[in-house]
Amino acid sequence: MGHGMQYPFNRFQARILRKLTTTLFDESRMVISPDQVVDNIQQQFALINRSKRLEIGLSLYAIMILLGGPFFMWGSRAFRRRRVERRLQKTRIDLLQDIARLRGVIYAGYYGHWQGASEADNAGNPVLASLHYTLPAQRDRSQPDDLPVERRFDKDLPNSVFVPESALPAEVEVIVIGSGAGGAVAAANLASQGYEVLVIEAGSHYPSSRISLEESRMSARLFKDGAIQTSRNRDIIVFQGQAVGGSTVINNGICLRVEQAGLVHEDANDVLASWHSAGAPVPKSELMDAYTHVENTLNVAPLDPRMGRHNGHHLLDGWNAYAATSTDPLDAGAPAMWFRKNWRSDAPQNKCISCGYCNTGCPYGRKNAMPESYLAAATGNGARILADAKVSRILWQDVSRTRATGVELRVNDGPRQVIRASKGVVVAAGAIASSNILKDSGIEGSGRGISLNIACPVPALMPHDVLAWDEDQMATYVDRADFLIESHFQPPMSMATLVPGWFEDHFERMLNYNRLASAGVLFPADRLGRIKKGKLHFELEEAELDVLRRALATLTKVYFAAGALEVYPALLVGQTLYSGMSDAEIDDFYANAITEPDDVVLSSSHPQGGNAINTDPGKGVIDLNHRVHGTDNVYVCDASVFPSCIRVNAQLTTMAMAHRATHEKAIFG
């Protein structure tokens, strides 16, 4: 087994995985063996935390029993397939629908096949060759606007800014919990004021020099729970980064404001007005000034169209063709734009080479995420970073919980330790983790009213090659007011988990990898979640499902307007929509296909809320200045402070809110 690790699944569990593999795949058409698929799965899960491995291991036993026990293990492939079709693919039982999602593990084991350690080792990778997929270093770069594929590490944080486990400080002035969009901005601002700042991050440090194109390894290392974290009811996959830099290391650098003329639909929900009416009158002028400051710091600018020259243009062209015949006024007023991102085409050190691997880290050192920007600024002013350290709770001076004196933490899952904070604590670990920390620290009301921007992917088969993987993963978007449509594409392993379908259908769709265009819908689910026993409990309601149906129907019509032959919405059953269907037929299809959340694959990368701003301590956890109500020196600076869902990608607003709270403000006296 690779990487010198122990197998996480025992021999019987491995046999179940093999049977699932030979059920989902026609062995005669596989270009690697079923045993190799199982070994790939073993390698990936060896890198994921023990609790998630145990959960999947128990699910394997459950799936074996539900599919026939010994008959599944020793019966024919035809028998196993019939069982899978009836009990997993076409089931209406919630438990079985949840278990059916294990198909993604098998597909990841096949399409995530990786040989050796380097990109060069995979020049003859049989799985990639079967898809006619070309790794970045082997792509044709002969066009005038193409950039050479070369790695650079000059923006990586030096080892000297990291605190070794053997030299933990007994006390610092300010502790910042979390190094993502909010924590990094707060740390940089506080360090610039002369505070002694220690940033504590639960994840490891993965600079560009440690990032590779091996999707399975990077997903396991850079995402919470190896990118298979879900809500408690398993209805929604929740993607969150767990590394120095947080989710900015594995996102696409999208920077959208909640309000901006020409870039946000005029009929969209007025986010700041909603906050004001809820008791959180955040001054618009302050937030807009903070946006400007962050955008200038990160060199935010519209994406260079060459970086979306394939898939990105398909969405814009399809939207323009669709909207030209639509009678819906929301369609007529919808901005269809190139994303604004945190790099400029005229900044050589940030020039993206369009490798398509943003979501598993940037191996080429081009991304301008938190480690390359705000954390670099923070450490340049003396801040230090403690990685692989999980804070369990805040410590208080007395039972009144008025003044924080430090934090309790574990480093590398070791014994509990304490680091004191003489000035104060900033909590910025993300909506879920920050809520858990505050709840476990005795803060009343934390973990309630959590919102999600929920995404659902939809690939489509075009009549020609698209080569969507040879560009920026997310290039263009349409703001339809009640939902967004965003172009996106993934490298083979991740794309295989997004492409719906079972058996030969899925296999054929992946063989058409080069002809797939891809986009997804993004819609708000406002304040429907709460933290329950440490995990996110989230229940979608009929109103959200109605928006989802409408959004998927619209995107399907856009694809057909762009010339698509077939559309593959991310439905559990894996149905296909065909060119020539009328608008009414498309609408009816989604009305019948989606009756509950388990019918469709949903995900979110934007958890928000849980510790909402409110002037009334009875209605929110923090005040307008981000200080926890009733405390002197505990602040929250991440997306958990949002009083309601902001509807668009959350990165820029998280940074702006953190900036507003900490820039040139002596919050600790």
Descriptive notes:
The protein is an alpha+beta fold. It is built from 21 helices and 20 strands. Strands 5, 11, 12, 13, 14, 15, 16, 17 and 19 form a nine-stranded antiparallel β-sheet that branches. Strands 1, 2, 7, 8, 9, 10 and 20 form a seven-stranded mixed β-sheet that branches. Strands 3-18 form a two-stranded parallel sheet. Strand 1 (171-177), helix 9 (181-192) and strand 2 form a beta-alpha-beta unit. The longest helix is centred in the C-terminal third of the chain and has 20 residues, at 542-561. The relative contact order is 0.14. The model has no long low-confidence stretch (mean pLDDT 95).
Helix content: 25-40%
User: End-to-end span in angstroms?
Assistant: 55 Å
Overall 3D form: globular
Number of helical regions: 21
Question: What would you report as the Rg, rounded to the nearest angstrom?
Answer: 24 Å
Overall average pLDDT: 95
Query: How many strands, what sense, and barrel or not for the largest sheet?
Result: 9 strands, antiparallel
Low-confidence stretches: none
Quickly list its features.
alpha+beta; 20 strands; 32% helix; 669 residues; 21 helices; seven-stranded mixed beta sheet
Task: Compose a concise summary of this entry.
The protein has 669 residues and is an alpha+beta fold. It is built from 21 helices and 20 strands. Helix 1 packs across helix 5, helix 7 packs antiparallel against helix 17 (492-498) and helix 19 (542-561) runs antiparallel to helix 20.
Topology overview:
Elements: H1 11-24, H2 34-45, H3 50-66, H4 70-74, H5 77-89, H6 94-100, H7 103-111, H8 126-130, E1 171-177, H9 181-192, E2 197-200, H10 215-222, E3 236-238, H11 271-277, H12 284-298, E4 301-302, H13 311-323, H14 329-332, E5 336-338, E6 340-341, H15 374-380, E7 384-386, E8 389-396, E9 404-411, E10 416-427, H16 431-440, E11 448-461, E12 476-479, E13 484-487, H17 492-498, H18 503-511, E14 516-532, E15 535-538, H19 542-561, E16 566-567, E17 577-578, H20 583-593, E18 602-604, E19 608-610, E20 634-636, H21 651-662
Parallel strand pairs: 1-2, 1-10, 2-7, 3-18, 10-20
Antiparallel strand pairs: 4-6, 5-12, 8-9, 9-10, 11-14, 11-16, 11-19, 12-13, 13-14, 14-15, 16-17
Helix pairs in contact: 1-2, 1-5, 2-7, 7-17, 9-15, 9-21, 12-21, 13-19, 19-20
